[in-house]
Design brief:
The chain has about 675 residues and is of the alpha/beta class. Mean pLDDT is about 95; it is low at about 1-10. Helix 16 links the parallel strand 19 (about 400) and strand 20 (about 430-435). The protein is globular. About 30% of the residues lie in helices and about 25% in strands. The strands form eight sheets. It has an eight-stranded mixed sheet with strand order 12-11-8-6-7-14-15-23, sandwiched between helices. It binds 5'-O-[(S)-butoxy(hydroxy)phosphoryl]adenosine (WT7). 5'-O-[(S)-butoxy(hydroxy)phosphoryl]adenosine binds near residues 279, 326, 436, 459 and 548.
């Protein structure tokens, strides 16, 4: 690791250049009259929320959820930054997502259309999904899982992932999903940090037509003494051979399959922890973001209805995110089911068996609401518009974007090729660009499709009941036309309640940069209309294909390799993935620079320590790293090198020859 202590991250000034280009953007797309007339949410919600924010959310909580015990207070903010929402209320997430729809006579409505990568399909009605979740709840209880216990989930995108999450929520167990693309080592550290009692996994999944394994990573993660895991439940997905630990391992079919389908859900306190989800921050150690029940479900359900204009009786909704990320939690496992929607779930990659797979799925299930990430859109752009043009996309009526800023070019392509069905539709579907974070739990900034005139590239307006602002260094609100730091001024229902096991770090990370305001870590600008444009992270967090990665985490993986003396990682602009990981490493004196061999070895090493998603795209071996006199690495200069620009102001370097040394070594 570099000499500087990880975590002492200076915020970088938001980049103005990006906005200069964006501010040329003056296209506006107002909702069509027909869309506006049928929209489920109107502009009245803004006024109502402005008049009394907690009362607005209390109304949503009572309208969108069935409480087994009503709450007595909407918000308790007496001990900031620790909020309590819907105080005294009791609610069961699984009952709200499942049983109540069956009780209301909607048991035959499809909850999930599952499409496996090899082409196998399964359909679950609300009645069937309810039954599966009850069985899983009984099975987990019979394995000793009780309210408050942690359950680690390491599953592919198959229905059992949603069933597992809802079964945990039903019995009050706290799930901690680890994305299937993370390594055994990443899984181990998350299992240990949360002290999980149960792990739910699968033998494997399919990736690009080939079986890929998951269970070996669980075995490896549990190979050390002193872990807390008592049982492992294994879904048979691809039938590959697995090592079996008698007494510890149980096939899903034998436990869940054999369990009773009778299970009564009881209400849990509104502030009962629902889940932990680890995310990368500015230090080497991922943070366990903690979410609780009532507020999280309320804001998830409200935003899902309002931002996607959900008509649950007729819409077919498809969010392409993996359940391993927050989007897959909030907008696959919870909100759509709470709202009684019908959704599509797809296991595989977009190019398997060919690059038109997604569009065939849209046509097959008549998807009407599609929610995906800019990186996917840019990939489809690269593959060519002829591919989606082969499918009938006329069912699409709302398009969502999430995960990173969407550039106007990708936005327009999304509108014309997907939203207008390659020009076959005269009125294109509105696009909603949604800004939020693992920490915010639910969408925070987004247009309302029946209300807002959208602008290509901007998330634009805080949602009703959400108080977002852009401030300068001193925390003063900036005028329209200026940039600064994105903050949230008032508590919101789905806000994180803390970092698992580390309340101090919660305060320090989010509530210390600006007093009394939540600092999101993003730079933003207000345009002349006061609309918000997101400009990317201002801290040492990278965004690669909408996935959050920490420079410090990858640096610490690199320096854990015996050949590396020091490492510095930057996110360099990349046409498809938004940013790409570029690492600069200094090798140890005794490590021979064996050229490509060491670079390949280091990439694999990062893959093993964190996961394939964290593998640097480029690793540059250099003789020195640019540091200030206090030892802080000047990543800005390395970013200039990585992006092929002339190196900027280097006057604060401790050694002013370093950049020349680096340039010289890279030329060789
Ligand atoms: C970071 C949060 C929200 C779920 C997926 C990512 C960036 C997210 C947008 C957007 C510009 C965005 C921000 C944020 N981000 N959505 N619509 N426009 N930037 O969740 O992994 O917690 O990452 O993603 O930089 O801070 P996450």
């Amino acid at each position: 690791m570099s000499q500087q202590t990880p975590g002492t991250t200076a915020t970088q000034a938001p980049q103005g250049d990006a906005f200069e280009n964006l501010s040329q953007e003056n296209r506006r797309f107002a909702p069509s009259a027909g869309f506006a007339a049928n929209a489920v949410v109107t502009s009245a919600d803004y006024a109502e929320a402005d008049a009394d924010r907690p009362a607005f959310w209390a109304k949503q909580a009572r309208e969108l959820l069935s409480w087994s015990k009503d709450f007595t207070q909407a918000l308790d903010w007496s001990n900031p930054p620790f909020a309590k929402w819907f105080v005294g209320g009791e609610v069961n997430a699984a009952y709200n997502a499942l049983d109540r729809h069956v009780e209301a006579g909607n048991g035959d409505r499809v909850a999930i259309y599952f499409e496996g990568e090899p082409g196998d399909t399964r359909t679950y009605t609300y009645a069937q999904l309810t039954e599966e979740v009850k069985k899983a709840a009984n099975a987990f209880e019979s394995l000793g899982v009780a309210k408050g216990d942690r359950v680690a989930v390491y599953l592919p995108m198959i229905p059992e992932a949603v069933i597992t999450l809802l079964a945990c929520a039903r019995i009050g167990a706290i799930h901690s999903v680890v994305f299937g693309g993370f390594s055994a080592e990443a899984l181990r550290s998350r299992i240990d940090d949360a002290e999980a009692k149960l792990v739910v996994t699968a033998d494997g999944t399919y990736r690009r037509g080939k079986p890929s394994a998951l269970k070996p990573a669980v075995d490896e993660a549990l190979a050390h003494d002193g872990h807390t895991v008592q049982n492992v439940v294994v879904v048979k997905r691809n039938g590959q051979d697995v090592d079996w630990h008698e007494g510890r391992d149980h096939w899903w079919a034998d436990t869940v399959g054999a369990a009773s389908a009778e299970h009564t859900a009881v209400g849990h306190d509104s502030e009962h922890p629902l889940f932990i989800l680890y995310t990368s921050g500015t230090t080497g150690k991922p943070k366990g973001i903690l979410h609780t029940t009532g507020g999280y479900l309320t804001q998830g359900a409200y935003t899902h209805k309002a931002v996607f204009d959900l008509h649950p009786e007729t819409d077919v909704y498809w969010c392409t995110a993996d359940v391993g990320w927050i989007t897959g939690h909030s907008y696959v496992a919870y909100a759509p089911l709470i709202n009684g929607a019908t959704q599509v779930m797809y296991e595989g990659t977009p190019d398997s068996p060919h690059q038109g797979r997604w569009w065939e799925i849209v046509e097959k299930y008549k998807v009407s609401i599609l929610y995906t990430a800019p990186t996917a859109i840019r990939t489809f752009m690269k593959w060519g518009k002829e591919i989606p043009a082969k499918s009938d996309l006329s069912s699409i009526r709302v398009l969502g974007s999430v995960g990173e800023p969407i550039n106007p070019e990708a936005w327009m392509w999304y509108r014309e090729v997907i939203g207008a069905d390659s020009g076959r539709k005269s009125i294109p579907a509105p696009i909603v660009d949604t800004w939020w974070q693992t920490e915010t739990g639910a969408q925070m900034i987004a247009p309302l499709p029946g209300v807002t005139a959208t602008k290509p590239g901007s998330a634009q307006v805080p949602l009703p009941g959400i108080a977002v602002d852009v401030v300068d260094e001193l925390g003063e609100s900036v005028p329209n036309g200026s940039g600064g730091y994105l903050v949230i001024r008032e508590p919101w229902p789905a806000m994180l309640r803390g970092i698992w096991g580390d309340p101090e770090r919660f305060k320090e990370t989010y509530w210390s940069r600006f007093e009394t305001m939540y600092f999101a870590g993003d730079g933003a600008k207000k345009d002349e209309d006061g609309d918000i444009w997101l400009l990317g992270r201002v801290d040492d967090v990278m965004n690669v294909s909408g996935h959050r990665l920490s420079t410090a985490e990858i640096e610490s993986a690199l320096v854990s390799h015996p050949a590396v003396a020091e490492a510095a990682v930057v996110g360099a602009a990349d046409e498809t993935t938004g940013q790409a990981v570029v690492a600069f490493v200094i090798l140890r004196g005794d490590a021979v620079d064996s050229g490509d061999a060491i670079v390949a070895e280091l990439r694999n090493h990062v893959g093993k320590e964190i996961g394939p998603i964290a593998k640097p795209k480029t690793i540059l071996v250099v003789p020195e790293l640019p540091k200030t006199r206090s030892g802080k690495i000047m990543r800005r200069l390395l970013k200039d090198v990585a992006e092929g620009r002339e190196v900027g102001d280097a006057t604060t370097l401790a050694d002013n020859t370093v950049m020349a040394q680096i340039a010289h070594s890279l030329k060789k």
